[in-house]
Known about the structure:
Largest sheet: 7 strands, antiparallel
Shape: globular
Low-confidence stretches: 3-9, 134-138
Mean pLDDT: 89
Structural class: alpha+beta
Strand content: 25-35%
Amino acid sequence: xxxxxxxxxxxxxxxxxxxxxxxxxxxxxxxxxxxxxxxxxxxxxxxxxxxxxxxxxxxxxxxxxxxxxxxxxxxxxxxxxxxxxxxxxxxxxxxxxxxxxxxxxxxxxxxxxxxxxxxxxxxxxxxxxxxxxxxxxxxxxxxxxxxxxxxxxxxxxxxxxxxxxxxxxxxxxxxxxxxxxxxxxxxxxxxxxxxxxxxxxxxxxxxxxxx
Length: 211
């Protein structure tokens, strides 16, 4: 968010702010123009073909390890300081969203970290929460989780939904259709990635506050 000036506020940004304020959750189709989504997809696939994506891990610190039975995606972290040309519209949109969230909801957001996530057919991610909570540690630095989907012509029978577990209600399934942004409070919602029948690509990240 340091390299580019924030983009002007948009209806999509306003929708994210309103959804987080009302329910802690927002699902916004067409968050970015289709051309920007296609460029991001092409960039991710180019870097996958170059061998830059690696199996993701689960756990923290010394206990972190690849566990394909729990999480099957391959990831590559974004470099905010030297973004690819295709990534610049995304960073501008993220900067504008951060500004709006801090202005309207006073969340104290300071930075954003994100990565490409490619799930091969049949892979998923077990139910989890993005902000850690256990007897010994609570991670409050992750405030808002964001997923931007990069898949073309995704159909319901392709599977791969993001299943969000909502307290007191049935889980909500969101198909990973290209251009859709899902944003939710990181410490509030458990969620999982259901297996898909075709490769599933997203750009996943978190707004953080200072430790």
